[in-house]
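Hi Y.,

Following your request, here is the sequence exactly as I used it, all 115 residues.
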Amino acid sequence: MWFKTKIIKQMTATVCGVKVKDYRVKSLVIAENRDGKLVPVGNVSSGLSDKDKITLFNVLPQLAADAAGLYGNVKSDDVIWVKPVLKVIVSFIEREENGSLRHPVLVGFTDEKTE
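Below is the corresponding structure, written out as tokens. Let me know if you'd prefer a different format.
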């Protein structure tokens, strides 16, 4: 008998933005630290609970920032940029050629520092 097993990777990322639609949090814009700069690696909505979404929406005024401090091509029409204080653990299948994560899933929030 043969079983196909996907290798799932994990990383700690920094939340740098929140996508909001119709007064609801839809996803988190996440970034990783490369050479002292935050670099976007994608959006994550899978794994984000309704409780997390409500809590995030309620604290957005305290977390909102003027600029994202990111470089790269990030569509920002519906993004509310936040101070880079929230850290998350994200699982993913692999990385795309541009460095973004493929099939990211939020595992949870953490106070672990990003490398």
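The mean pLDDT is 88.

Thanks again,
Q.
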